[in-house]
Amino acid sequence: MGSHARQISVLGVPTSAGSHNPGQEKAPAAWRDAGLIESLRAAGLDVEDRGDLAVEPFRPVSPVDGLRDADRVAGIAASVAAPVAEIRAAGRVPLVLGGDCTITLGVLAGSGSGGGLVYFDGDADLHTPEHTDSAVADTMGMTHLLGGGSPRLARLGSRHPLLGPGQVVLFGFDPAELDTFQWTEVASRHLYAAPAPAVRADPAGEARRALRYLDRRCDSYLVHFDVDVLHTGLFPLANFPHFAGLGLDEASTCLDEFTGGEKFGGLVITEVNPGNDPSGELLGALVKTVAGALGPALGPAR
Ligand SMILES: [Mn+2]
């Protein structure tokens, strides 16, 4: 660690437009109510709070061509790119608070080429508009990042694809959530895949192995942290339940490794549904985890 504090810029993206249901659009306000900004500062970080973009709740419109509300989802994701580009151009580290997982498209669009992505998520999100029962854009995030799916979502940045297959690690997903189509995508694209059981067996070791893979291929990397990588039975905060995920301590160990890497370039946190946490207890615990991972005072010893 250098002698001056890490510079973090917080941006809220209160949207559930790309999800199954409303709720996640309330997450940025809930993070603030849970004391995120104060906790980041208390951890020794230089924090700029850029506030939240417009609130965009889910609406139950009918799917068109295998996607629900695609133009709106694409517009919201695109609106994330410019502020993220400004934050990165200023040499600061973005902390983007979703929102559903489609916002990560905008974060990648606002980041330069040559960057990688840790996709720390309970899913691989390799569904496509052609292979979907739900038409939910949230379940197709990796497809669109890799350049496939709907051009409206895959081509919202200045480059296409937003990511090459060697620039991403799928980390912590529930292997039972992938159907044959998604496994075929993982195999045929030679995607790096560390499923939840492997991560649970050795959280720090798997995180370091994933970073070694990205370090060889990328100038920097972003971390997409979908809280559905956490086991719903242990930590029921995510919008959609998952039952093969990590405990908070295991996820925290992984986050500490990811944020401690020399090429760490930003963090996106998605899928928090405050409706699942009426007392605020879960989000309070997650605030500590995030502040600990980002803060030099509490990060891993290096
Ligand atoms: Mn997910």
Instruction: Kindly provide the radius of gyration, computed on alpha-carbon positions and rounded to a whole number of angstroms.
Output: 17 Å
Give the overall shape, derived from the CA principal axes: globular
- Main sheet: strands, sense, barrel: 8 strands, parallel
* Count of β-strands: 8
Oligomeric state: single chain
Task: Describe the model.
The protein is an alpha/beta fold and 302 residues long. The protein has a single domain (7-294), classed as 3-Layer(aba) Sandwich (Arginase, Chain A), CATH 3.40.800. Helix content is 35%, strand content 15%. It has helices spanning 27-33, 36-42, 70-89, 103-109, 141-145, 151-154, 180-188, 196-201, 203-217, 248-260, 281-294, and strands at 7-12, 46-52, 93-97, 115-120, 168-171, 192-194, 220-226, 264-270. It has an 8-stranded parallel beta sheet with strand order 2-1-3-8-7-4-5-6, with helices on both faces. The radius of gyration is 17 Å and the shape is globular. It binds manganese (II) ion. Residues 101, 121-123, 226, 228, 271 line the site of manganese (II) ion (MN).
Notable characteristics:
binds manganese (II) ion, 8-stranded parallel beta sheet, 302 residues, 15% strand, 35% helix
Compact overview of the structure:
This protein is α/β, with parallel strands linked by helices. The protein has helices at residues 27-33, 36-42, 70-89, 103-109, 141-145, 151-154, 180-188, 196-201, 203-217, 248-260, 281-294, and strands at 7-12, 46-52, 93-97, 115-120, 168-171, 192-194, 220-226, 264-270. It has one domain (7-294): Arginase, Chain A (3-Layer(aba) Sandwich).
